[in-house]
């Protein structure tokens, strides 16, 4: 059962969205303004104003709940801020239906997202700009790893120790240790096993 908290700029919109969700199997609307742990927050507003952004940021900090945003006026420029505030689905207010709202809530609860096609394109363009302007000049990829770190991680995943990795890559043992230390410290990884798990999870090895 997905627990949903609904917040809206007016009582009529809140009651309307709550009734849509109450009619959907597997979804229950909870009282109050704060999202419950493991739940989804549905926010309805005219636009992504400073007040709405502040509320979303507070919610993200306190609960980390994914947000389904039902909005009247939403531009591509709003997208990056929305994503930073844990918004994973954006629905145009005029096009909301019980089915679309329920689908977005279930997707959000499962770790997915729902965005209009034009916003998906803008998000991809933004990620490309981040890679080109921020990561690439530092020799990093989207996972925050340099090519040298990826090489070391792949050999670690194959079970090689520091000496064997150094031999395979023609590095000194000190260099290998420095690479591992720099990577685990920067990415806040606990140890070598955690580093390998991170690389597997991000698809780097």
From TrEMBL:
Sample GO molecular function, one term: DNA binding
A Pfam short name: GerE
UniProt domain HTH luxR-type: residue ranges: 138-203
Keywords: DNA-binding, Transcription, Transcription regulation
GO biological process, one term: regulation of DNA-templated transcription
Cited InterPro entries: Sig_transdc_resp-reg_C-effctor, Tscrpt_reg_LuxR_C
Keyword Transcription regulation carried by entry: yes
The protein's name: DNA-binding NarL/FixJ family response regulator
């Amino acid at each position: 059962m997905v627990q949903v908290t609904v917040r809206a700029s007016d009582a009529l919109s809140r009651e309307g969205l709550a009734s849509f969700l109450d009619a959907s199997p597997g979804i229950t609307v909870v009282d109050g303004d704060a999202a419950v742990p493991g739940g989804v927050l549905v926010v309805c507003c005219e636009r992504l104003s400073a007040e709405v952004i502040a509320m979303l940021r507070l919610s993200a900090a306190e609960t980390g709940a994914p947000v389904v945003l039902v909005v009247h006026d939403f531009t591509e420029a709003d997208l990056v801020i929305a994503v930073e505030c844990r918004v994973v689905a954006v629905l145009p207010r005029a096009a909301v239906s019980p089915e679309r709202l329920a689908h977005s809530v279930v997707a959000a609860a499962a770790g997915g997202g729902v965005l209009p096609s034009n916003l998906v394109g803008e998000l991809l363009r933004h990620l490309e700009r981040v890679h080109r302007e921020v990561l690439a000049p530092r020799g990093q990829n989207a996972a925050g790893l340099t090519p040298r770190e990826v090489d070391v991680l792949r050999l670690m995943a194959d079970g090689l120790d520091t000496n064997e990795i150094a031999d395979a890559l023609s590095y000194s043992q000190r260099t290998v240790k420095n690479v591992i230390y720099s990577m685990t410290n920067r990415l806040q990884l606990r140890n070598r096993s955690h580093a390998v798990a991170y690389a597997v999870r991000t698809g780097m090895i």
